[in-house]
């Protein structure tokens, strides 16, 4: 038998990723906050569902102003989540179940309470004075025109102690590290080594595109066609030429990969949170250097129609041909829950689940999507999310209207509410006599694991079936993809084919019955029991999907 081709047969080519926001997954000690032992207790659930990799959002020491994306010590664990021993146990227990584990690595910035920053801001000539990006103002103006993540504020923040500005690409409590300083780079690469040594299988890289900025801090050029960015209330007036996706950042991706390669076997992976056109994103990836995967975020703001997905998939197939793998995602801890985009319609959620788990690439599923969780309304005045708080100058009514116009939640609390395990008062997330850190959604009675487990036709069981099918069919986990040209406009159809295995997938995005000519064999999965093949024609009921052998 020929040995597997290392270019095309790597564990991460076939994997499926389940994202856990630790604060909201399961509270094992009754303080209203999820924790690492809570995740460990649910690994059987994740394995039995059929996911292969778990990505855990940050659990490192942090004042939790941005809930872990503001770190004060990269080598220790926030006490409310557990300890380093719990991390060791998480890795071991996951591996014992055949699961891979990815951590979330926040390299771009620290918390402003990190001792490095406290020292750095204390004077202009302390040992850490250049660990962050400091600059003088230009008269009364800021050093340049770079914007923070909300696009409303400047990325530059004045520090009276130094009489200078520091750069914070996300928000002011998260100062950017200066990767032009060799000690910063070495220290952070050693952080990476520390966790790799503990056996982590890879990292999701937070804000990776922003890591290395222009040394000369040049102004970004004006944007001739200002666009609304995802999750921001104002259009982007400048092209982020000098602070995003720089040549030095592409080079850093290769350096980071080399560090991972020191720990090969199994191969460790890097998945970047990066923004840009497919051509730019492609530049992060390499064969044996660069990142293995980058998120393709277009799906986060999908329009629920066949044409949207047809065009996007075609573009990604062109730009990320095998052995590259597109990384698809419909929602995460920052963005509107996918099910809310389709007004909670479970038929549509099922069509989307079929799409995500059968298209060529690595699918990422945010916890709770498997039971159809939706956004939980949280008024701006009660927001805990720091990004939402940066819009606190808006009256509640205006804020709500803005969210409706943008079709996007600007208060990330709404998508981070506790995982719905059952229909009890706190959805089985924490005991009934404890207040959970965020409210529980009213729909926990139907949209919970307990309500759907073992129920034929539930969204949860559909996920289990899809993950099983994907694992057992080479066409689905490692085959190529060809779009079907001759489907009605509202139907998306594609074929997945590997050696000796072939399947076809049809998704009807319309309100009407659709029919397609097929030479398909058995129906393997159908989201509507009325779908059937009759005399070479597949009848697809509204908002339903079919996978068939072919
Ligand atoms: C993370 C956010 C976080 C931000 C700053 C991201 O894009 O996904 O949750 O607030 O980076 O670290």
Describe the structure.
This protein is of the alpha/beta class and 550 residues long. The protein has 16 helices and 23 strands. It has an eight-stranded parallel β-barrel. The chain has a five-stranded antiparallel beta sheet with strand order 16-17-18-23-20. A three-stranded antiparallel beta sheet has the order 6-8-7, with no helix packed on it. Helix 11 runs parallel beside helix 15 (459-472). The site of beta-D-glucopyranose has 10 residues, from loops.
Structure, briefly:
By secondary structure, the chain is an alpha/beta fold. The chain is built from 16 helices and 23 strands. It has helices at 11-14, 36-40, 43-49, 84-96, 115-120, 182-197, 247-261, 278-282, 306-319, 338-341, 346-358, 386-389, 396-406, 449-452, 459-472, 474-478, and strands spanning 17-20, 53-56, 60-61, 73-77, 100-105, 134-135, 156-159, 164-167, 202-205, 222-228, 235-238, 269-272, 293-296, 327-329, 362-366, 480-483, 491-498, 501-508, 514-517, 523-526, 532-534, 537-540, 544-549.
Q: How big a fraction of the residues is strand?
A: 15-25%
Category from helices, strands and their pairing: alpha/beta
How much is the average pLDDT? Answer: 95
Quaternary state, please? single chain
The profile of the biggest β sheet is:
8 strands, parallel, barrel
**Class of the domain at 480-549, according to the CATH hierarchy?**
Mainly Beta
Number of strands: 23
Q: What is the topology, as strand order, of the major beta sheet? A: 1-2-5-9-12-13-14-15
Cα-based radius of gyration, to the nearest Å? 23 Å
Query: Can you identify the CATH superfamily of the domain at 480-549?
Result: Golgi alpha-mannosidase II
Shape: globular
Tally of individual helices: 16
Could you name the ranges where pLDDT drops below 50 across 5 or more consecutive residues? none
**Euclidean distance between termini CA atoms:** 26 Å
Which range best describes the helical content: under 10%, 10-25%, 25-40%, 40-55%, 55-70% or over 70%? Answer: 25-40%
Bound molecules: beta-D-glucopyranose
- From the 3D coordinates, which CATH architecture of the domain at 480-549 would you assign? Sandwich
CATH topology of the domain at 480-549: Immunoglobulin-like
């Amino acid at each position: 038998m020929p040995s597997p081709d290392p270019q095309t047969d790597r564990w991460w080519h076939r994997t499926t990723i389940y994202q856990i926001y630790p604060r909201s997954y399961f509270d094992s000690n009754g303080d209203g906050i999820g924790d690492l032992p809570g995740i460990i207790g649910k690994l059987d659930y994740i394995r039995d569902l059929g996911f292969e990799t778990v990505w855990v959002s940050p659990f490192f020491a942090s004042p939790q102003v941005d809930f872990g994306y503001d770190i004060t010590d990269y080598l220790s664990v926030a006490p409310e989540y557990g300890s380093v021993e719990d991390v060791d146990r998480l890795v071991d227990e996951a591996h014992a179940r055949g699961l891979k584990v990815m951590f979330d690595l926040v390299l771009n910035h620290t918390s402003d309470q990190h001792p490095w920053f406290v020292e750095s801001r204390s004077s202009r000539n302390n040992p850490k004075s250049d660990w962050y990006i400091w600059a003088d103002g230009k008269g009364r103006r800021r050093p340049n025109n770079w914007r923070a993540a909300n696009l409303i504020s400047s990325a530059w923040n004045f520090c009276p102690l130094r009489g200078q500005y520091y750069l914070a690409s996300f928000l002011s409590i998260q100062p950017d590290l200066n990767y032009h300083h060799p000690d910063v780079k070495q220290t952070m690469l050693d952080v990476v080594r520390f966790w790799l040594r503990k056996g982590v299988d890879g990292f999701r890289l937070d804000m990776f595109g922003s890591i290395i900025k222009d040394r000369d801090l040049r102004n970004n050029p004006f944007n001739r066609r200002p666009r609304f960015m995802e999750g921001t209330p104002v259009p982007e007036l400048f092209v982020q030429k000098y602070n995003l996706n720089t040549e030095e950042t592409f080079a850093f991706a290769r350096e980071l990969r080399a560090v991972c390669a020191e720990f090969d076997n199994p191969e460790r992976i890097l998945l970047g949170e990066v923004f840009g056109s497919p051509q730019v994103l492609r530049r992060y990836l390499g064969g044996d250097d660069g990142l293995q995967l980058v998120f393709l975020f277009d799906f986060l703001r999908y329009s629920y129609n066949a044409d949207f997905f047809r065009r996007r998939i075609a573009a990604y197939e062109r730009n990320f041909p095998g052995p590259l793998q597109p990384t698809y995602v419909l929602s995460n801890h920052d963005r509107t829950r996918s099910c809310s985009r389709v007004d909670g319609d479970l038929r549509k959620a099922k069509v989307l689940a079929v799409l995500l788990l059968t298209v060529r690439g690595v699918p990422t599923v945010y916890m709770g999507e498997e039971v159809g969780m939706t956004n939980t309304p949280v008024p701006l005045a009660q927001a805990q999310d720091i990004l939402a708080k940066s819009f606190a100058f808006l009256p509640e009514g205006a804020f709500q209207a803005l969210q409706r116009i943008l079709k996007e939640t600007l208060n990330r609390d709404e998508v981070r509410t506790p995982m719905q395990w059952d229909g009890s008062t706190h959805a089985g997330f924490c005991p009934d006599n404890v207040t959970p850190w965020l409210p529980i959604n009213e729909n926990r009675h139907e949209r919970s694991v307990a309500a759907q487990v073992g129920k034929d036709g539930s969204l949860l069981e559909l996920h289990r079936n899809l993950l099983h099918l994907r694992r057992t069919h080479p066409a689905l986990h490692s085959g190529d993809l060809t779009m079907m040209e001759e489907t009605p406009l509202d139907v998306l159809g594609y074929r997945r084919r590997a050696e000796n295995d072939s399947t076809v997938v049809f998704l009807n995005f319309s309100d009407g019955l659709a029919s397609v000519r097929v030479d398909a064999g058995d129906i393997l999965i159908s989201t509507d029991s009325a779908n059937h093949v009759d005399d070479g024609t597949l009848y697809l009921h509204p908002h339903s999907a079919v996978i068939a052998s072919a």
